[in-house]
Amino acid sequence: xxxxxxxxxxxxxxxxxxxxxxxxxxxxxxxxxxxxxxxxxxxxxxxxxxxxxxxxxxxxxxxxxxxxxxxxxxxxxxxxxxxxxxxxxxxxxxxxxxxxxxxxxxxxxxxxxxxxxxxxxxxxxxxxxxxxxxxxxxxxxxxxxxxxxxxxxxxxxxxxxxxxxxxxxxxxxxxxxxxxxxxxxxxxxxxxxxxxxxxxxxxxxxx
Amino acid sequence: xxxxxxxxxxxxxxxxxxxxxxxxxxxxxxxxxxxxxxxxxxxxxxxxxxxxxxxxxxxxxxxxxxxxxxxxxxxxxxxxxxxxxxxxxxxxxxxxxxxxxxxxxxxxxxxxxxxxxxxxxxxxxxxxxxxxxxxxxxxxxxxxxxxxxxxxxxxxxxxxxxxxxxxxxxxxxxxxxxxxxxxxxxxxxxxxxxxxxxxxxxxxxxx
Amino acid sequence: xxxxxxxxxxxxxxxxxxxxxxxxxxxxxxxxxxxxxxxxxxxxxxxxxxxxxxxxxxxxxxxxxxxxxxxxxxxxxxxxxxxxxxxxxxxxxxxxxxxxxxxxxxxxxxxxxxxxxxxxxxxxxxxxxxxxxxxxxxxxxxxxxxxxxxxxxxxxxxxxxxxxxxxxxxxxxxxxxxxxxxxxxxxxxxxxxxxxxxxxxxxxxxx
Amino acid sequence: xxxxxxxxxxxxxxxxxxxxxxxxxxxxxxxxxxxxxxxxxxxxxxxxxxxxxxxxxxxxxxxxxxxxxxxxxxxxxxxxxxxxxxxxxxxxxxxxxxxxxxxxxxxxxxxxxxxxxxxxxxxxxxxxxxxxxxxxxxxxxxxxxxxxxxxxxxxxxxxxxxxxxxxxxxxxxxxxxxxxxxxxxxxxxxxxxxxxxxxxxxxxxxx
Lengths: 207, 207, 207, 207
Prior knowledge:
By secondary structure, chain A is mainly alpha-helical. Chain A is 75% helix and 2% strand. Chains in contact: A-B, A-C, B-D, C-D. At the B-D interface, helix 1, helix 2, helix 3 and helix 8 of B face strand 1, helix 1, helix 4 and helix 5 of D.
């Protein structure tokens, strides 16, 4: 790994460390919103666990969503080697959205038929997606903070993947005005779609 | 350390960072489920601490279990130098199980004579073990993401250790259908067994 | 990156890791103080979210404040390559203030018209700023823990930026004795001012 | 930095990362045990903050104690370059004690005149100190996991510092049987004593 010092700018490793920390905590904290049943008989436990089903569902969905966003962030920093103050703030705005997701998840779990809850959750994801997109566009415009040998194809491929996510978040939020079940389905399907490797993956594998 | 960039693929350091963060939080958060006694006389404190005994027991057990799983993960990444999207998702599935363990621990502490609680806890560990096993098999099949000079012996040794854990988790869960005390004993003994070094340790020491 | 071992002293990477961890947790934990509405009708949700407005406001403000402090810490460690026991304690005092911010934020959110709440919040920031300033002065006096080729200009520029923040924190706290709204406005405006790059940024970019 | 791979054994960086994460969380989580006052008049806020004084006191004390232990851990890993399964378990036992400290701190804050609370807190610190001492003795006996050029003086100096802490923890716990105020004073004074640099610091600076 070439030291960022040789090229100027702040090294990227601390932004990565802060971001990994925030993701790790957000992923773990969603579960803390599921209250542990307080004791009782076998059948009471089964009933209580059953009643928590919407919370389990929301937790797994949000965990996978955080996974998609973390992978997107990870791919970007595979190429971004230097940072500056502006990029740090794009990243902080992104992390602001990540820290809010446990709250939005709790709201969606408790009000899963409410358009406002879908708006809170989808809006949260849209802030995350928009700042991640801005982060990439800022870093790559004129190869500002990436190595000059990063291909236009790789840049476009990562950009399109984030932008595609934004379209899903926006559509799911809009769908919530009509039927929140459509929104929930879209939130669940989205990470599954993002399992599929694309040109980004081939570019990274070659590099 | 040879840079992963020279061989293509995403570097492994961020997966390690995210995973270490999730483990660190899960380990610390189990204790948060033990409510701090709210004040009173000396003898009240002693009584309250005594009443918390099952929770202390569950906390220490789960901490050690997390220790076993973290060491297993650590050994794998001693050899895995590159990652790809598929491996990241194997890892995320593993972390999903890790983040859930504080909840499962709380359930087991509050219902330690209930087969369903053992099923929640053992099932959680089985998801963790299965994804860790899949993670290793995916990474090492055809030396996909490990260096070509990693011996078949080292690969088999790590695989068997994870598979052995899975057998323990499964047996303990099954035993819970008959007597949950047998399950608890197995959950406690398992980390003690895993203190013993095996061929993996010798392979790592030589490398 | 030149190893700190070659120059003596403890390497800086672990102080960075501990600090990034504390920041990541503090950033995520502020949100946990906002209680998730417990279920009900659509209009109840809207009303409850509206009632939480001061808490959302305090959360975003404190997150951005943590962002400013983290960036300040990050810039310092761009130059600090070695640490010693004294520097570790300056850093720990700084982190003590960071860990307290979620509490101070909660107090300010619940008592936003109270001078005492402003004093708690502003005093907390003043401890953070003072220890960060002491941290830098200690590290750079006689180039104690920075490379000899770090220019006096870069040293002064980082020092003035931290000192400027301290002046804002102090003024905002004082203003709270007369009108807490002035304090709140200053706390919100401060991160926006710190978006603007200065000589520090140019020095770092060149390096 | 010489790669640990060249000498065999697991690299130390992940143990450091896990440990820094656990410390960061433990440091931040102690504050979460202090309940944020729920709103009211200016004088109510002052009264409530006053009533929280023992909790603030316990939080600052435990934070500094965690600082002492983290610095001790940090100094050890300045020399330890390789790990093995045994060392990982010494470290995990140490971390088990660290994760428990927020609970023990809460108990001490709520029962500061109770010998049992002092026993919980002091006992917790003794487990931490004992495992940290065992960790160092295991790593350095026959220069097992440290470089052969580490001087006997440096080894003894770090060992004595940890052992000295153990003596303080033990004495403070015993003193609690007679007067818990003596114990509290010793817990508070201990970190202040450990601010003073000794031979360890000179050894590290030279290296």
